[in-house]
Specification:
mainly alpha
Length: about 120
């Protein structure tokens, strides 16, 4: 016998008080921290550039050699930190039975992690 493919009835949806629903909501809302986090990473970028006496917008961190590449990768990891947390919450929500909403949150957060990471590494 195959599983039903129709819409879910209310007994199959995560309740608003369930851990899966709460984790899914946090997985989405954690991305709102980017409203503040962009300013933090912007300032951090200038600080990282100052370590190598480089001018942002003129020079690039890879111009500083291996240390510059390491700093650039570290900066990219820190810049995408909210989405790393969002990914973790979405994985936990999926395991708790969050369903499609948790899966979408997981995909969204992974796309943001990869996007910000590549944007910084490619000199965005």
């Amino acid at each position: 016998m195959s599983a039903a493919t129709g819409p879910l009835d209310s007994s199959q949806l995560a309740s608003a008080n369930s851990p899966a629903f709460a984790l899914t909501r946090v997985a989405y809302l954690v991305n709102l921290t980017y409203l503040l986090w962009f300013w933090v990473t912007f300032a951090a970028g200038y600080w990282v550039y100052s370590w190598f006496d480089l001018e942002p917008g003129v020079d690039s961190l890879p111009d500083a050699g291996a240390g510059g590449w390491i700093a650039l990768i570290g900066w990219a990891l820190v810049a995408s930190l909210p989405s790393w947390f969002g990914t973790r919450f979405a994985v936990r929500a999926r395991r708790a039975g969050g369903g499609r909403a948790a899966t979408i949150a997981l995909i969204l957060n992974l796309v943001l992690v990869v996007g910000f990471f590549l944007w910084i590494l490619l000199g965005g």
